[in-house]
Each structure stands twice: as structure tokens, then as C-alpha cells.
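TA notes, week 10

Several of you asked for a full example with nothing omitted. So below is the full record: C-alpha cells for the whole chain, then the designed sequence directly under it. When grading your own attempts, check the secondary structure regions first.
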């Protein structure tokens, strides 16, 4: 079970767009190999960034509306939102250190 909150089409606006804290959204699917490799890193980041960045996951198979709205063409894709605005997008697997550097550069 992931430590990141699962967000759906119904909860996306409240959990991501209307949040005062920066939110990192992990767009993923259960069948995606690189997504599975990224999952433990995402779980570690949840702890590392507690209180600084909210980290959530969106299953693109179950929430195609959101994936379509943000132009998700390949997964994993991570989008960092700040006050409802897209700040940065990361596509594909990235080691934890590089991912943390990307997040830090946007805080």
C-alpha cells in the first residue's frame, strides 16, 4: 500500500488544485514497469517532504479525464503544482536524488 494519497477525478480539485502546499502528482498505472520502480521512491519522498510538499498518485486507467486534461502521454509522469498552477513536469523514471533536486529547485 502506497504512502501517497490516491486521488481521483472527484477529489483532484480539492486535494491538488485548491491546496496551499505544493503538490507533486504521480500519474501511474498498475501495469507500468517504470511506475513500479518509482513507487518506493515516491513513498520515501512522502516522508522526506512531509509538511513541505503533498505527494499524491493518480491511476491514469481509472482517472482518464485528469490524465487527458494534463496531456499525460507516457507514464510515469510527475507534475508539481503550486497553488493550482503547474510548475514542473517530469516524465519517466528518475532516481530519488535527481527527483529531490527537481522538487527542491521548485520550492
Amino acid at each position: 500500500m502506497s504512502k501517497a494519497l490516491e486521488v481521483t477525478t472527484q477529489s483532484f480539485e480539492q486535494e491538488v488544485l485548491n491546496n496551499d502546499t505544493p503538490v507533486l502528482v504521480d500519474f501511474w498505472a498498475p501495469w507500468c514497469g517504470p511506475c513500479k520502480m518509482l513507487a518506493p521512491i515516491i513513498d520515501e519522498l512522502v516522508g522526506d517532504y512531509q509538511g513541505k510538499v503533498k505527494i499524491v498518485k493518480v491511476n491514469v486507467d481509472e482517472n482518464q479525464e485528469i490524465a487527458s486534461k494534463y496531456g499525460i502521454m507516457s507514464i510515469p509522469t510527475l507534475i508539481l503544482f503550486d497553488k493550482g498552477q503547474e510548475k514542473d513536469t517530469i516524465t519517466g523514471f528518475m532516481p530519488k536524488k535527481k527527483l529531490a533536486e527537481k522538487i527542491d529547485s521548485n520550492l
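Residues 33-48 form the longest helix (16 residues). Use that as a sanity check on your answer.
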